[in-house]
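Figure 2 data, in text form.
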Amino acid sequence: MQNLMKVVFFIMDKTLFSFDYYLKLFPEIEQLKNINQNPKYHKEGNVFIHTKKVCEQVKKLEQWNNLSNNEKFILYMSCFFHDIGKLICTKLENGEIVSPKHAIIGAKTFRELIYKVYSEQYNIDFYTRETIANLIKYHGLPLFFIEKTNLDYEIIKASQCVNIQLLYLLAKADLLGRDCDDKENLLNNIELFKDYCIELNCFYNKKQFYNNYTRLLYFNNKNIWYNDEIFDNRKFKVILMIGIPLSGKDTYIKENFSNIPIISLDDIREEFKISPKDSSKKVVTIVKERAKVFLRQKKTFIWNATNIIKDTRNSLLNLFISYGAIVEYIYLEVPYKEILKRYNKRERIVPINVIDKMINKMDMVEPYEADNVLYVLNN
């Protein structure tokens, strides 16, 4: 957070937290004028009107003046982009306008936009981008947390990924920026969310666990209470590499893990002459069988593949946990222009349009997913 971005010189003057100014920086938000909302919940009009009202309301919150300049920037950007997912998700269903999963899609849309278009133009660093993306992803939680089947789990999970205090303020501004009949009741929900987070000890800081193993089991539905104390006697590690093609996974392994066995999906394809265009099921089956050899031997090894989809990572994680492994995720990222540069120098590489699709659908690794998550940037 310390190296926020060069463009934030303007946030030193509060008067420059201007919606019109941000609109010049990020004109994509203009498209929200074409996206209507359900008048039952948003009588104020289209998504653009709502977004502008949210950005106005956040500056009126009494907590606004107590925030640092970095926090103000992050919160304002979260307000500005919080509903960008509605560009993709909004549809008519049974005669009503709905936008299912717009927060999750919005986080991915924001991440891709910043990564491919604006990261270097405005010098937006990885941690700033991801802080904003996660606020977008979880922005609906304070409003609807009470409807969750396991609300403790959902709140504690969010606390591992976002600043809950900023999430609370974002949700409050979001609600104040809409016109609806039940606004007062919904505001009470948001205040109840704050009180409940304080009770869970995760409003001011992320929820702490007895150790990494307890946290890992809790978030992987192993019937662990968040205050349990699980003894950790594991002795070996599995390292899962994560990153789009050309992000430098192979180079990183060579430079840092020269003596650790590697299981690579690409190597298996080459060994068995399996085309990248063919189904990956056969490759994964072979790789898992080889991994089980190491797992039975309690031997540390590296699993090297893109692993950009969370369901894929969860499937592998459950396998590793079942054998008693310590699990470390290593996510690698380089600037998009570096991806293009490396692409132009390589032969027989994944087509750039395929890489772009992978960037679009990637599930960013969240801090709670493994015993340890390491983010290696600009390698």
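Caption note: The radius of gyration is 22 Å.
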